[in-house]
């Protein structure tokens, strides 16, 4: 299935709802749920330490380090399953990636707040390739500045096996989020492949 460009101003967002066959996506969900060393990280929110409302893991090349709160962090090594996925995603996007951030949304109350993936480590026009496995969750996009980018917020339902790619000016002009849902919801696992450009 091909990636299709969404018609959004000041953005380049592509979606393939059927990047992986449904059964392969389900098998991969269960394998990764069980084999990844999931952690619930603390973040500072308005000066308070709180736990992130999801589990995370970070894998990549040893050189793909990240500076965070004055620390130089190194990713976990690629597992065979993650290495294989990296190759598939690189072929589909024509882009090289050296790390992947994994998010496990255990149920509907797990979420990701509004943000852009615009850390300096990702360069000026980052390519983020986001693979979803498991329960369908709503992915929201909205302009950072409504005058500069006049467009209503966008909602995309990301089914199991879908690949979403954000590139070009997207992180500069748009924010994205995965809101909580009150509906009973099974686990969703999301992998965002990234290229950390200071990794030389
Ligand atoms: O779970 C998703 O679809 C989004 C994840 C995300 O935005 C991120 O990891 O930066
Ligand atoms: Fe993000």
Automatic annotation (TrEMBL):
<keyword id="KW-0223">Dioxygenase</keyword>
<dbReference type="InterPro" id="IPR032852">
    <property type="entry name" value="ALKBH2"/>
</dbReference>
<dbReference type="InterPro" id="IPR005123">
    <property type="entry name" value="Oxoglu/Fe-dep_dioxygenase_dom"/>
</dbReference>
<keyword id="KW-0560">Oxidoreductase</keyword>
<dbReference type="GO" id="GO:0051213">
    <property type="term" value="F:dioxygenase activity"/>
</dbReference>
<feature type="domain" description="Fe2OG dioxygenase">
    <location>
        <begin position="96"/>
        <end position="197"/>
    </location>
</feature>
<dbReference type="Pfam" id="PF13532">
    <property type="entry name" value="2OG-FeII_Oxy_2"/>
</dbReference>
<dbReference type="InterPro" id="IPR037151">
    <property type="entry name" value="AlkB-like_sf"/>
</dbReference>
<protein>
    <submittedName>
        <fullName>Alpha-ketoglutarate-dependent dioxygenase AlkB</fullName>
    </submittedName>
</protein>
<dbReference type="InterPro" id="IPR027450">
    <property type="entry name" value="AlkB-like"/>
</dbReference>
